[in-house]
Specification:
By secondary structure, the chain is an alpha/beta fold. It folds into two domains: 178 residues, FAD/NAD(P)-binding domain (3-Layer(bba) Sandwich), CATH 3.50.50.60; 120 residues, FAD/NAD(P)-binding domain (3-Layer(bba) Sandwich). The chain has seven helices and 19 strands. A hairpin with a 5-residue loop joins strand 15 and strand 16. Helix 1 runs parallel beside helix 7 and helix 5 packs parallel to helix 6. The protein binds NADP nicotinamide-adenine-dinucleotide phosphate.
Length: 305
């Protein structure tokens, strides 16, 4: 029987592991298929406190893992495939058999939705980004497109106008889904042009960085080419909660609902990081909630009989 199993090996999972390990709980971290989380998809991280020169995303993750290991955290890169609540404990099915635990910290993150065209994978981190806060700074005086029509797309576009020379929002319909206030701000911003009824067909570049996109007007079939340095895809995130079915309470967008203390609706089960955060989605806020969840798991275990 484990004290704590942590699902997920991003910022939230590894921070929870550091705290749980330092509390002598010998946590077991199940890394999952996308080991390291979303920071593995970024290049330089410039806004994580403590690194004045910035740090590469994968290096930050490797450091967190080492730090957790130092205090006795254990790691297994298996995937959890099922979740069952028992009388006094929890059970997780994995590819290697069933694990039993007294507490569980869900830090499985959220995956940015992608367009589904082959070139976006090739240029991810090299001109294609899913996070304006993370990468906007690299696009000073550059030309950028933002794909999407919701609050995220509008918010990212507005933020990116601080850096971009020219910004185009490409949306597949002729109206935004975003809230009125965000739409008003977008329409009032002189740096932003909107291309309606259009989809990104292909991304061009020299293999190392992006140089342009091909857009197709969905109504007319017209194909146009736009020279750009960066493409921000802001079409939503999918929280990774599939194995919990409807046992864990989630909001309308599928994010796990937690209270202020990181508790879910099931006792002994806590959630941290992007899987429960549709708003901030930052490495540092994920680390913060990972810390909270581990401290609450520790408290729960003190009362556990
Ligand atoms: P969202 O509201 O689901 O919007 C996603 C947008 O992307 C939609 O406009 C959608 O087009 C488009 N889209 C989806 N799949 C696409 C595809 N394959 N190709 C091209 N376009 C695609 O997601 P979100 O903007 O991330 O917002 C999620 C939630 O967080 C919302 O409740 C939102 O209000 C909230 N949020 C709030 C704030 C804020 O208040 N500051 C900021 C960010 C997010 P259609 O419109 O045609 O469906």
């Amino acid at each position: 029987m484990e004290n704590v199993i942590i699902l997920g090996s991003g910022c939230a999972g590894f921070t929870a592991a550091i705290y749980a390990a330092r509390a002598n709980l010998s946590p077991l971290v199940l890394g999952g298929l996308e080991s390291g989380g979303q920071l593995m998809l970024t290049t330089e991280v410039e806004n994580f406190p403590g690194f004045p020169e910035g740090i590469m995303g994968p290096e930050l993750i490797a450091n967190m893992r080492k730090q957790a290991e130092r205090f006795g955290a254990r790691f297994d890169d298996v995937n959890a495939t099922s979740f069952t609540v028992k009388d006094k404990h929890l059970e997780l099915g994995t590819e290697n058999g069933v694990l039993q635990t007294k507490t569980l910290i869900i830090a499985t993150g959220a995956s940015a939705k992608m367009l589904g065209i082959p070139s976006e994978k090739q240029y991810l981190g090299r001109g294609v980004s899913t996070c304006a806060t993370c990468d906007g700074f690299f696009y000073k005086d550059k030309e950028i497109i933002v794909v999407g029509g919701g609050d995220s797309a509008c918010e990212e576009a507005l933020f990116l106008t601080k850096f971009a020379k020219k910004l185009t929002i490409v949306h597949r319909r002729d109206a935004f889904r975003a809230s009125k206030i965000m739409q008003d701000r977008v329409f009032a911003n002189k740096k932003i042009t909107v291309v309606w009824n259009s989809a990104v067909e292909e991304i061009q570049g020299d293999g190392k960085k992006v140089s342009g996109v091909t857009l197709k007007n969905i109504e007319t079939g017209n194909v146009t080419h736009l020279q750009v340095d960066g493409i921000f895809i802001a079409i939503g995130h999918t929280p990774n909660t599939r194995i919990f079915g409807n046992q864990i309470k989630v909001d309308d967008h599928g994010f796990i609902i937690t209270d202020k203390h990181s508790h879910t609706n099931i006792s002994g089960v806590f959630a941290a990081g992007d899987v429960q955060d549709p708003v901030f989605k930052q490495a540092v806020t994920s680390a913060g909630t990972g810390c909270q969840a581990a401290m609450e798991a520790e408290k729960y275990l003190e009362r556990y009989i």
